[in-house]
Specification:
The protein is an alpha/beta fold and 475 residues long. It folds into 2 domains: 305 residues, FAD/NAD(P)-binding domain (3-Layer(bba) Sandwich), CATH 3.50.50.60; 114 residues, no CATH class. Helix content is 32%, strand content 19%. The strands form 7 sheets. The chain has a 5-stranded parallel sheet. Strands 1-10-9-8 form a 4-stranded mixed sheet. A 4-stranded antiparallel sheet has the order 14-15-13-16. Bound molecules: flavin-adenine dinucleotide. Flavin-adenine dinucleotide binds next to helix 2, strand 4, strand 8 and helix 11.
């Protein structure tokens, strides 16, 4: 769907129409009348309705997992819906393999402890490191099962209904058909802000509505015969530095030299290799520009184009022989990596100025230490500079709880990259350590709201913070 055919104002109206139609319409397909040749008026129908949950979390990426775990551990009956066949979002379905800004109290430390106990993490640094995506999948499943989170995979959230301003019911689609779910509190952790948009919240994307936005990237796992021989092309190889021997930028430049020697160019100006373990590496090679995450046709083309690019580059490198001999793709990501999605309007908007001043808030749920990381929005910009910082020297700054609470709709929290912020601030807080911290906070607030029959904006952080603290299993 593109914006010109479905502008935002109409989108909100159609959501509101959904509210009115919720009790009034009956399910008779014969009542549907076609009003225009390019529109099909789908008939209303009765759906099975589940009212059992206290908290419903939509999307099981780093933010959604953290939200569901903290809500469930706080004693709330918690449901978690995920469209892909695994938990973890960009960590797993997106084959990210690298984590930033993770040195925070709470679930972050618990995940590190488990990864380490399974030898599934490279580096001693608690803030940024390589992890094994398959190990991440299984450990997240174990944590959710243990906490009693009711997970439903292969399930997409497709509609939201309000009673007045309050989000009341969502509808999902899966092989089980359409199902309706009602709860006192919902958390949008879809990354792309699907739930907030469906519920009728205002939102922004990229630098402006036309989506000059951060590009998408298809990550891939590959096997090599001798990782040591590839050492100088591998980012953060035995060091946490960005420059110098083994540093990220030095490795990127050396790798670009190899791509040139192979007669290919990567569409991402900073092509990157991470060492996952033994002969397994991750390749981050491509950029797909101007794709809106809700445009299914465009995202399909971008997915196929980027997968073809990964294979083209792999084959060209393999022909070089030497350290590249035997290189083969082991897996391409189930989901192309989406950097920019909707940013749902909250009761506070995190802005560039907050990064510059190192803002502090009484209701801080996370302290961000990662800088601004804006990938080029076009091929031309990528050729000039693949990554820019918007002239912003970020100091560690806080994300307030209010940025996680929807402004236009009650009973709705956001966590992860779809919280309320401007383009530049989002380019900093979006990394996964912050997504986890936000998720944990949203889950705790949601649990209290549901259990005390209040709305999330009626819960002060002073009330929620001690609960979250008591749930933490490590420092
Ligand atoms: C290519 C790339 C490289 C990056 N590099 C790094 C890095 O090195 N380190 C780092 O820490 N961060 C990195 N990031 C940023 C980071 O990965 C994301 O911003 C982070 O994933 C945010 O977590 P999230 O939980 O908000 O979103 P996501 O990980 O996107 O999770 C959202 C989840 O919701 C699900 N979902 C979406 N819509 C629906 C729906 N309607 N119904 C049901 N489920 C739905 C998705 O399938 C997904 O599982 C990178 C991102 C990309 C794309």
């Amino acid at each position: 769907m593109d914006d010109s055919r479905f502008p935002r104002r109409r989108f909100i109206r159609s959501s509101l129409a959904g509210v009115a139609g919720f009790t009034a319409l009956s399910a008779t397909s014969s009542s549907a009348e076609e009003t225009s040749p390019d529109q099909f008026p789908e008939a209303a129908r009765q759906l099975p309705l589940d009212t059992d949950a206290d908290v419903i979390v939509c999307g099981a990426g780093p933010a959604g997992i953290a939200a569901a775990l903290s809500a469930a551990r706080a004693g709330a009956k918690t449901r978690l819906f995920e469209v892909h066949g695994c938990l973890g979002g960009v960590w797993t379905a997106g084959l990210l393999t690298y984590i930033f800004d993770f040195d925070k109290p709470g679930l972050t430390r618990e995940i590190i402890r488990i990864l380490d106990s399974r030898d599934a993490r490279r580096s001693e640094n608690p803030s940024r490191f390589v992890y094994e995506p398959e190990e991440m999948k299984i450990l997240l499943e174990e944590l959710c099962l243990e906490a009693g989170v009711q997970v439903q995979l292969f399930t997409r959230v497709t509609a939201a209904y309000r009673e007045g301003k309050r989000l009341n019911t969502i509808v999902t689609e899966s092989k089980a058909g359409r199902q309706a779910w009602r709860a006192p509190v919902f958390i949008d952790a879809t990354g792309d802000g699907d739930l907030g948009a469906l519920a009728g919240c205002e939102w922004e994307i990229g630098q402006s509505a036309d989506c000059p936005c951060q590009p998408m990237t298809m990550n891939a796992l590959a096997v090599v015969r001798d990782t040591e021989a590839l050492g100088k092309y591998i980012s953060f190889n035995g060091t946490d530095a960005f420059t110098g021997e083994g540093g990220h930028i030095t490795a990127v430049e050396a790798f670009k030299g190899e791509l040139k020697r192979a007669g290919v160019e990567a569409s991402y100006g900073h092509p990157t290799i991470f060492h996952v373990r033994d002969g397994l590496v991750m390749l981050m090679l491509n950029h797909e520009y101007g794709i809106k995450p809700w445009d299914a046709a465009a995202i399909t083309e971008a997915t196929m184009r980027s997968r073809a690019e990964v294979f083209r580059i792999m084959r060209a490198l393999r022909k070089l022989g030497g350290p590249w001999e035997g290189l083969q793709i082991a897996a391409t990501a189930e989901q192309i990596g989406v950097r920019d999605g909707r940013r749902i309007r909250g009761r506070y908007q995190v802005v560039r100025e907050d990064l510059i001043t190192g803002a502090r808030f009484d209701d801080a749920v996370a302290r961000v230490t990662f800088g601004v990381d804006i990938h080029a929005h076009s091929k031309e910009a990528n050729q000039k500079e693949a990554i820019t910082r918007a002239d912003t020297k970020a100091r560690p700054y806080d994300i307030p709880l209010r940025a996680l609470i929807a402004k236009d709709v009650d009973g709705l929290l956001m966590a992860g990259r779809c919280i309320s912020g401007d383009f530049v601030a989002h380019a900093s807080y979006r990394v996964t350590g912050n997504a986890v911290a936000m998720g944990e906070a949203a889950g705790a607030v949601a649990a209290i709201a549901a259990q005390t029959k209040r709305l999330p904006h009626e819960i002060g952080w002073k009330e929620a913070a001690p609960l979250l603290e008591s749930l933490r299993r490590t420092g």
